[in-house]
Fold each of these.
Amino acid sequence: MSKIAIATLGCKVNHYESAGIVESLRRSNHEIADFRESADIYIVNTCTVTAKTDYQSRQLIRRAHRRNPEAPIVVTGCYAQTDPERLASIDGVTLVAGDEAKELIPDLIERDEHRSGRIIVGDTNRRRPFSSLPVTVMEDQTRAYLKVQDGCDTFCSYCIIPYARGRSRSLPADNVVEAVRGLVGSGYREIVLTGIHLGHYGRDLPQSPGLASLIRRIEADTSLERMRISSLEPMDITNDLLETIGSSRRLCRHLHLALQSGDDGILRLMGRDYSTDRFRQLVYRILDHTPETAVGIDIMVGFPGEGQREFENTAAFVESLPLAYFHVFPYSRRPGTRAASMENQV
């Protein structure tokens, strides 16, 4: 059997999917090596949320090729989906598999088809089934991730991820319960429910069960001790979800919200569906309902059109909110998005 090394960039969903690939490869008796070691096969699970992660992905590929110039390199993930030809042109790359083809990688390796030079990239515009390699172990982690949702229908003006991940789709609740039981059986006491647009969980399923319904189902039908939910969009915080957070004995009192800007003009340019006033009302509604909830936010700086006034509006808005923390990151111009062609790039 082969010695295989895998490196992962990006979000919790990507890390969950890499864990699924690793678990499948282990079942076929392959040895999983540290990416810093020489290996027979390398897999790079890429991210394309920023230009920096594109660069880091290419760096990892070239690093693997230097370690073992004879080893085939399989490239997958969101960058592989959006710019497969560029990645296929890098020395050592023998297979580019987009997000939909990610779950095929273990079988392609088993059939020795990972050396073919193929590019396997599907059409993200068509409706796709939920894809998930089963995961019962997240190596070197005491807290497990569980992907319950994938894709995004929102198309904010700065974001390339809907073009990489496709339309929103959800893992049915029965399958989620089965996956939770598997992770609990492996010894995990805490699980983070994650997705690309987690707050849209269930909208594509019969009867459109929401995220709150899923949380209650997990609590009722599994012995999981503790649960977290990853980042949510502000307008996805429903009264039902707040009631569930308040009444749950297992769900951690923590909400991470993607604010992005504290200036209403910039929010409109971003294509966000709320104003600063609505966001402020939401934060106070959360804390009025469950005062011990830790509320954190994301802030993007340097969006096209953001000058000193808009930046100061955001700073003042953030300072005025009762937040536990905030995460600040720079805007990155992504090809094919509406923001990429806007005037007044910063």
Amino acid sequence: MSHVLVTGGAGFIGSAFARNFVGWHPNSRVTVVDKLTYAGNLSNLAPIWENPRFRFVQADICDFDSIAPLVAHADAVVNFAAESHVDRSLSDPDVFVRTNVLGTNTLLRAARAAEVARFVHISTDEVYGHVATGAAAEDAPLKPRNPYSASKAGAELLAFSYFTNFGLPVMVTRGSNTIGPYQYPEKATPLFVTNAIDNLPMPIYGRGTAIRDYLYVDDHAAAIDLVLHHGTPGEAYNVGSEDALNTVDLAQHILTRLGKPEALMTFVTDRPGHDLRYAIDSTKLRALGWRRAFDLPATMDATVGWYSRNEAWWRPIKSGAFREYYKQQYGKDLASSGTTTAPAGRA
């Protein structure tokens, strides 16, 4: 692929893919498109900003007139663009449907018109819903249970419909909980790490029994790159670490690495409709040759270490609009427990 268009590339996983792609493919170019909503951050692209094979364009994937010319100049599209936080989808489902479903359809229309060689749509293991036992393979039924995962499932179905009806070479990846550098601190792992650094409570839903796989972001990016180049059109690929932790386990891993007390763990009202277990089978992806480079200890070490060393990245975020979101999301529970209700930034 000589020129890849990466949508949502100023976000967490998209920026990791873009940063790595430039290094992995020295003869290829990458154009990143991002609307720059609250979670899009140009600092995430700083390591490649001056690279002559990199370009950034601010645009909305729902705007066909802006997106179509960019797609027309690319060999492939990798679509990371999405609203991605379950809690926000419960308070404002409309924006999730607009970006995740209508935006994906706009990209698919443009890709079809341009006859792109490959289209990789980035989805999530949450489309399977709660998995009580075992692990979901790619042919398991999709049973999303919140507006976020429902919008992602809808986008997948649209993408596959373009393969079936129009021959667009679409592939879908379904990743497990991904952690690492540059993740917006509304998500549990960076929130826990940055709060613990400041000796603030780590708000844990319910009793902390929800189980997730935790995957390092560079391993996730490598899987997507593999599917881009070697995946079979019309197929989905699970991307999972198969290292299962509940939320208390996750918090303890973080506290141990930071040398902080377990008293920082603070239990708050559970999320409505909380899926208690996700588990996916990545056998199909491994058959393509994927192997992760970071096991669980290495994943936790790299993640906690990065936030510890890069306060200049996350402190401005937690000092801005994030503070109001945090107060609305956790303030009542944390106030009733007698703990601090909002993270404070430092200059």
Amino acid sequence: MNSHFQFQYPWFLALLALLPVYAFLRGRVGKLSALRFSSAEIARAAGGAARSAAGRLLAFLRIMTVALLVVALAGPRFAHDRTETQASGVDIMLVFDLSWSMMVLDMGGHDETGTRFGIASAVLEDFVNKRPNDRIGLIVFSGVPYLASPLTLNHDWLVENLHRLHIGIIRELGTAIGDATAAATKRLQMSKDSKSRIIILLTDGDNNQGEIEPVPAAQLAAAIGAKIYTIGLGIEEPSHLPAFDVDTGKFKHGPGGELIPTIMLQPANYSVLGQMSRLAHGKFYRATNRRDLENIYNEIDRLEKTEVKLRRFTTFTPLFQWPLIGAGALLALELILSNTRFRRVP
């Protein structure tokens, strides 16, 4: 909001230019006193000084009264310029894989922040911050899906929940892609006033758990008009899964500080993700490093634009009452003085 001072009728201020002319024509004094004195010299000295002082002060008060009345007529006011944003936002459900394989270090990192999970979390947060006018929700899954955040415009709260996540927080093992997609679809279906519905599924594995297969889940999403963007994470080579603490999501280290390798994980088959995106009129992506993933979310951000309308309007706070009150006070003072201290004697 931007505020500034202005006059509603500024042309009235031109009347102020007449006040010096009025003062000049009025002269320094008013009517002469009618008292008789025994000496003309005494009358001249006393009358001239008193007449001059009284005339000047009363004339000044009269001019200031008129000036304040002119200012009040000009309509002083504060103008408050406001801009309102009316956005036809997109409803977006983020579906985020928290299976153990997301702890693999194959995307250029060396600690927890460089795992598939760590890189994906940071990119997701950036994506959320770029979409202030969209309702965004979060489904996380491993062997079963959980709602981490319903659709909301309170993105700070959503990001806080994202920060609380770690690999191991879901104790049911596996990758339930179909169930997670169906859960996201159900949440989007509950949003009746949605202009556009989107699911962004990020995973590094094959569907091996759950009651609903990925392809039927994608068909359900397409039936309610939701697009599905699918992202397959990780390189196309076998990778070791380092040992980690499931209670904290932190790596375990050997005596020399080195990571402790456990099982060897094979690359996932992402053909199902491609089928899902085609059925739901979206797009399938592959990301093998952080830059790939950032570019993917940037492209989705460009593809799914939010319609934003700006409405500008101005409200006013009138201030005319203050010069009007001042004029009334000066007029009252003039009347009091002219009838008391500077009272004319006939």
